[in-house]
């Protein structure tokens, strides 16, 4: 199962003038010992500078966050933001649900020594504050989110990044990444990564430009098993992976009207996610299908493949149903998005 966001499950920033100094990977010590720096090749070769001056940020929910200097000891309570910090070559002192992250997110690896503070929605506050963070990064939708008040009660600044934006999912992905970079003095590194992402996407568009598919209609979905039944989560308009597919010339086949017809209450306006069952996939007709591979022998994919409804779908019968590699996180940062783009291109050009 691909895990849902904390806020989905229950329902730009302004930088101060910064003085540039230092460069490379940010490494910190936790209260319990050394935390290894990010080990990706990009970070071991990173030569971008880290800012040192005061930081003033309007966060994702409109709150003003003021720091005397860029944060070095950050605690990060959501998976995209964990990935983002590591892509910026910043090692968090604490994260939420490291085991789940390691299962579903392959874009960046959490280094040894980082403290796991429990679930994303209900972190262990004692464990969290024992790491002595100078900034806590979460995601939220409103400034009165109860988690913000709970975390701020102990006097540590909280940076709330916007959980999702169905009107511009790719733009929000970039905004969240940029905001964390500003808070940690890593704006130069962030610009490099985002430039690389834009180039990666442009190259992918060129690779698929001349491919003639039977239809450009498509659906990306993931799923899980609940009560012994397969639950399907289609990614509709406003979902990040839908937007990436559209950038490659595909046309979303999951609409509010189709979703409502199957009684699931419509596509979520922020995340662009819906919910249905295997039979609900028949609503997209001849569309190309892409889906998250949970990589589990007893997971939803193995059960899906046993279904006669699934095997009767046109895309399945014609070899146009493609599993993404395991660990491509559907709500991640620039590196996860590059992984998704690569998976789309591989499927589209497979012939």
Spatial gap, N to C terminus: 29 Å
How many independent structural domains? 2
Stated plainly, the CATH topology of the largest domain is called Rossmann fold
* Mean pLDDT metric: 88
Structural class: alpha/beta
> Given this structure, which CATH class of the largest domain is correct?
Alpha Beta
Q: Sketch the topology as an H/E string, one letter per element.
A: HEEEHEEEEHEHEHEHEHHEEHEHEHHHEH
Rg calculated over all Cα atoms: 20 Å
In summary, what is this structure?
Pfam families: Peripla_BP_2 (PF01497). Residues 1-22 form the signal peptide. The protein has helices at residues 6-9, 41-44, 79-87, 98-104, 125-130, 146-152, 169-184, 187-208, 240-247, 256-261, 300-304, 308-312, 314-317, 334-348, and strands spanning 20-23, 29-30, 33-34, 49-51, 55-58, 64-67, 74-76, 94-95, 115-116, 135-140, 158-162, 217-226, 229-235, 251-252, 288-291, 321-323.
Question: Any overview of this molecule?
Answer:
Residues 34-54 are annotated as: Disordered. The chain has 351 residues and is an alpha/beta fold. It has 2 domains: 41-197, 3-Layer(aba) Sandwich (Rossmann fold); 211-350, 3-Layer(aba) Sandwich (Rossmann fold), CATH 3.40.50.1980. The chain has helices at 6-9, 41-44, 79-87, 98-104, 125-130, 146-152, 169-184, 187-208, 240-247, 256-261, 300-304, 308-312, 314-317, 334-348, and strands at 20-23, 29-30, 33-34, 49-51, 55-58, 64-67, 74-76, 94-95, 115-116, 135-140, 158-162, 217-226, 229-235, 251-252, 288-291, 321-323. The chain has a 5-stranded parallel β-sheet with strand order 9-8-7-10-11, with helices on both faces. Strands 12, 13, 14, 15 and 16 form a 5-stranded mixed β-sheet that branches. A two-stranded antiparallel sheet has the order 1-4. α4 links the parallel β8 and β9 (115-116). The longest helix is centred in the middle third of the chain and has 22 residues, at 187-208.
